[in-house]
Amino acid sequence: MTPASEAELSEAIRAAEGPLRIVGGGTRPIGTPVEGATLSTDALTGIELYEPGALTLVVKSGTPVAAVEAALEAEGQRLPFEPIDHRPLLGTKNVPTIGGIVATNASGPRRIAVGACRDFMLGVRFVDGRGTILKNGGRVMKNVTGYDLVKLMAGSYGTLGILTEVALKVLPDVDDAATVTLSGLSDVDAVRAMSAALGSPFEVSGAAHDPEAGATYLRIEGFATSVAYRAGRISDLLAQFGTADVTHGKAATAETWAAIRDVTDFAGRDGDVWRLSVKPSDAPALVAKSGAEAVRYDWGGGLVWLLMPEGADLRAKLGTFRGHATLIRASDDTRRALPVFQPENPVVARLSEGLRAKFDPRGILNPGVMG
To answer: Which one of the record's GO molecular function terms can you name (predicted)?
Structure first.
């Protein structure tokens, strides 16, 4: 089913007699596999409203991310949360949609500096499991009244409702960028260096570490003179970790950080891929316990991508820890056998069940996708 309007979507949900597998562009098959009739938002496309002067954008959920980015680029603006493109990592071939970005709260390396997708959402329209059309928030930044269903929908993976429209805050693009690279650091020292950089006044917008390449990356963005100054000061600040190499240029920096954002190093490599969210200082010790075949650090060490043997249970290897482990890429069998998302404590689990029962009383929207 591919409804061409919000009204058609509402009718399709009302008429559904069993589970529905909700998809946008189909580029992010994350979660426990769902058995059911496929319902796609692919036909709900178009930019409804774009006011560059107000830094606001209203777009239908099935609109390709590329179309949104092209419209923003023409006005010298961008999506500040730098959404990850999962296609290289997951081997998918379709077109990512803005609804898929919101439904998974997909956010890239810049999250540590400006926030996640959910932090830039102003309003939503969606259809719940009864087929009721709901809206929350607004189309302008000053509209902050009412219950915050906007942020609730971010990262809900289509289990509470199917998005039809999203209002977002956008930001101006930058004039220039540079990458400061340190070489040969251990994971522990890399986290220390990234923490020092992020805690400095020099506005680092990305901090990542690649143990295989022996490289620690820091991104600086802004006006050209400011980027040059701050890159130099960061290099001086981190002199105890070795001599830094600075690569200037917006295009070169974008290429480097797109690869970090999309974890392209793991694309095509055998094994399962896990995503670990932890306190940065805890990350190296957890990585050492994991038995991972390869590792990439992002968000200053707060996000760790791990390439694991197929079928391996990362949580069992780590034992009790403070954080979340999410299985991003694995076979259908493994994603049925292991919880894809970090199991919730009983109190949170009851709240989650209550929310799903309220918004989807028949349990037909992506049932079981989040466990």
So the answer is: catalytic activity
